[in-house]
Amino acid sequence: MPEYQQTVFKILTLNHIASAGLECFPRDNYQIGENIAQPDAILVRSHNMLNMDVPRTILAIGRAGAGTNNIPVKAMSERGIPVFNTPGANANAVKELVLAGLFLAARNLLPALRYVETLQGDDDTLHTLAEREKKRFSGIELPGRTLGIVGLGEIGRLVADAALKLGMKVVGYDPNITVESAWSLSSEVKKAQSIEALLRASDFITVHVPLLDATRHLINEKSISNMKRGAILLNFSRNAIVDEEAVLAGISSGKIKSYVCDFPSRKLQRHESVVTLPHLGASTLEAEQNCAVMVVNQLVDFLQNGNITNTVNFPNTSMERESSYRIAVSNENVPNIVGQISTDLAKAGLNIHNMVNKSRGEMAYTLVDVDSPVPLQLINKIASISGVLSARYVPFPTRQVN
Ligand SMILES: NC(=O)c1ccc[n+]([C@@H]2O[C@H](COP(=O)([O-])OP(=O)(O)OC[C@H]3O[C@@H](n4cnc5c(N)ncnc54)[C@H](O)[C@@H]3O)[C@@H](O)[C@H]2O)c1
Ligand SMILES: O=C(O)[C@H](O)COP(=O)(O)O
């Protein structure tokens, strides 16, 4: 029988993570820092990991936030590594900034502020100039205007609700809307049959979709041609979801009145009809705390119990602890993996106490609790089954093979 020792899990942070979250790591079992060697897990926000040599020791990545386009998810899936995120934890913060964006654009606030900054002279002069020129910044009101929302997930549905409360009409498009989102939407949100239909109907358009191959340049020259003349476009998702060149051309032709986004670029910088913010959507005290607490709790449950909640590449899989001896297996979603695991356990004389196997697309995940300690050789044998991506012993209380 192998010997065991208490594990200290090592967590590498690639961004600043709110202390409210870091405090959720059980103090004695975790070492956390930005210079940790051979980490067991990585905690990240928007740090670009795409060209990083991700340490071979890691078991999981935790994204304190929603978007995971900065993480090499496919490569991690091939290694059997779950990539966690925090659905909804920063959605209210983004919703509030989208509302600010609607008001900024509707009332021409940025050009107005820029104008005031240029004024010179005494108070009387400033007053005279302001009264004379204010007609240049006259805006529109929101009630009765139509807001088109592309993507009705955690953020899109909150924006829909807030826009209705402001008296706007709301039309939404999301071909993959979840049942939960659909239930949470007001019946006043009209369903667009296509993105083109949404663009044709909307005075304001806001996009709330993840950056994927399928959503790259979702807003492009062709889609802009479907917009109403003078539409206002908001992008708080990712810069690459919108083709900037096409938007600038749309502004020049008068098709787009203004573009409000959370992603600066050289082309957009200082453009009089563009508002760019420095990726502020999730930068509130509350959102940073929510995301950090949520992701740390998910990571701890994974590292100590093998349970998976909220990843972008694995099925949610959890099992109550009824035995101290647990095996966690990531595998390709192909036939007979569970059969081979069971056979190996039986040959080793181990009785299965409880078991769960879940799949999601090409990935599957299995938790097996057995009634007695598991020898390391058996974990290695399971890891060598064709189609198994990783196998891990997760005893309780947390211990590791010496
Ligand atoms: N600016 C910021 O700071 C900030 C903060 C949080 C999230 N985000 C970005 O916003 C994105 C959305 O966040 P969320 O929390 O709402 O995610 P979410 O996963 O809850 O919702 C995304 C929705 O988009 C839908 N969708 C996917 N492809 C689509 C398509 N082609 N057309 C229409 N709908 C489509 C999905 O079905 C889903 O309902 C994130 O992926 C991230 O990139 C930005
Ligand atoms: O996808 C997200 O959650 C947002 O873009 C927030 O990113 P941040 O955590 O780097 O602010």
TrEMBL record:
GO terms for molecular function: NAD binding; phosphoglycerate dehydrogenase activity. It catalyses: (2R)-3-phosphoglycerate + NAD(+) = 3-phosphooxypyruvate + NADH + H(+); (R)-2-hydroxyglutarate + NAD(+) = 2-oxoglutarate + NADH + H(+). The keyword Oxidoreductase applies. Pathway: Amino-acid biosynthesis; L-serine biosynthesis; L-serine from 3-phospho-D-glycerate: step 1/3. Residues 326-396 form the ACT domain. Catalyzes the reversible oxidation of 3-phospho-D-glycerate to 3-phosphonooxypyruvate, the first step of the phosphorylated L-serine biosynthesis pathway. Also catalyzes the reversible oxidation of 2-hydroxyglutarate to 2-oxoglutarate. This is D-3-phosphoglycerate dehydrogenase.
